[in-house]
Amino acid sequence: MEEYFSIDNRQSTIDNPIAILPSCKIKMMRIISVSRRTDIPSFYTKWFMNRIRDGFCHWINPFGGQVYRVSLQPEDCLALVFWTRNPTPLIRHLDFLRREGYRFYFHFTINGYPKILESHNPPAHTMVAALQRLADLISPELTFWRYDPILLNEVTSEAYHLKQFDFLSRQLEGYTNRCYFSYVAFYGKTERNLRWVEREHNLSFQRPSIEEQRHLAHQLRDIGATRGITLYSCCHDGLIGDGIEKAHCIDSALIAKLRPDINMHLKSSPTRQDCGCAESADIGAYDTCPYGCVYCYANNSRDVAVRRMRAHDPNDTVLWRPSTLRTGLLT
Predict the structure, then answer these.
(1) What is the pLDDT of residues 122-150, one digit of tens each?
(2) Measuring CA to CA, which residue among 3, 12, 9 is closest to residue 69?
(3) Is 116 in the same domain as 228?
(4) Same-domain pairing of 71 and 7
(5) Does 35 sit behind a cis peptide bond, omega within 30 degrees of 0 on the bond before it?
(6) Exposure of 25 by Cβ count < 10 A (0-12 exposed, 13-18 middle, 19+ buried)?
(7) Which of 57, 98, 306, 325 is the most buried (most CB within 10 A)?
(8) DSSP state, residue 185
(9) How far apart are the C-alpha atoms of 330 and 187, rounded to whole Å?
C-alpha cells in the first residue's frame, strides 16, 4: 500500500490580504468537508458537481483572506464528508461519485424545531423520508443523524426534546445507528440572534448546568438505545460515558475503513474545545446558507446569506466570491 502524508504548505501573506497559495509538491490526499460552513447539498450541488468534474475548487480563509486551491480529483480525496439538512439535490449524483472512486458519508441534521428557531427549514417528516432514502442508497452505516444543537427554553423544554427525540428516532430506526448531539454554543453572533428571538417571542434561552445536560442526555441515550441508535457527544467530553460516545465528526477510524487500500496518518485537527475531528479541507463559505436557523454559528444573518446565495455563480471556482477578489485572478 502507498503511504500518504499531509503537510502545511502555507506561506506568509502579510503584505497581500488575498494571496493564492501554491500547490504542494508532495503527494497529498485530503478529507474534504462539504461543508460545516454552509449546506452545499441543499443549495450548491450544481457548483459542487461542476467542481468535481473540473477536479478542483478554491476556498477563501474567512479569517485571513488567503485563497487555497483544493484538488477534488478522486485520487487526491481520501473521503468526502457531507453535512446537510436536505441531500435530495445531491442524491442523483451519488452513483456517479461512487463510480469515479469517491468515498463518502453524510451528517444529516434533523431537529424539527418550530419556525421561530428554524424559519425556512424543510418539514421534519420530509427530511425523515429523505434520510430513509439516503440510507437505503448508501447504507445506514454511512448516514449519521444529527440532533444538534439542543436549545432549552419555554417552547423547547426538556419535555419537548424527549417527545421530539422519541418521535424522530422511531422514524429513523434501522436507517441510522448514530446520533450526534451537542448543546448550543453561545458564540457572539449566535447569542445576538437568540436575544432577538427572546425579545420577539418572550422566551428565555437557558444555559443548563452540566448536571442538567447529563440528565437530559441520559434520557435521550435510553430512548436511542431502544432503536439501535448510539448517542455521540460533539465537543463536550463531560457528557461522554455511560453509553454516550465521543464524537469524531471527521472520523479517521471510519475513513480508514472506507479506504483499506491506503496506509494513512491522519492528524487531529479540533475546531473547538473537545472536538475529536481529524484534519480536513472545508470548501464552504460562511454566510451563504439561507435556512435561517437562529442558533447557527456560520451565519450573521439570513438576509446576508440570501444575498450571497443570489450572487453565487455555479461556474465559479469559489462558492462565494467577495468583491475584493477579481474575476480571473484564480488559477
Answers:
(1) 999 999 999 999 999 999 999 999 999 99
(2) 9
(3) yes
(4) yes
(5) yes
(6) exposed
(7) 57
(8) P
(9) 33
Strands 56-60, 67-71: parallel, antiparallel or unpaired by DSSP? antiparallel
Closest CA to 325 of 104, 120, 61: 61
- Residues 10, 29, 269, 246, Cα dihedral to 10°: 170
**297 inside domain:** no
Fill in the DSSP letter of residue 309: H
Count of residues in the chain: 331
Query: What are the DSSP calls for 262-293, one per residue?
Result: -EE-PPB--SSTT--PBP-EE---SS--TT-B
What are the φ/ψ torsions at residue 279 (nearest 5 degrees)?
-65, 140
Claim to verify: residue 89 and residue 208 sit in the same structural domain? no
Cβ 72 vs Cβ 40: under 8 Å: no
| Angle, helix 158-172 to helix 124-138, in steps of 10 degrees | 40
* Prediction pTM value: 0.91
Q: Which domain holds residue 182?
A: 107-247
Contact residues for 300 (Cβ-Cβ < 8 A; gap 6+): 189, 287
Residue pair 183/149 in contact by the 8 Å Cβ criterion: yes
Per the model's pLDDT, the better-predicted residue between 198 and 3 turns out to be 198
Strand partners of residue 79: 31
Domain for residue 69, yes or no? Answer: yes
Based on the fold, state whether residues 270 and 192 are members of the same structural domain.
Answer: no
In the predicted model, is pLDDT for residue 26 greater than 50?
A: no
**Assigned domain for 301 exists:** no
How far apart, in whole angstroms, are the C-alpha atoms of residue 176 and residue 168? 11
Indicate whether 270 and 168 sit together in one domain: no
118 and 193 share a domain?
A: yes
CA–CA separation, 36 vs 58, rounded Å? 16
Beta carbons of 296 and 39 less than 8 angstroms apart: no
Is residue 213 domain-resident?
yes
Same domain, 217 and 259: no
For 140, the grid coordinates are: 445506514
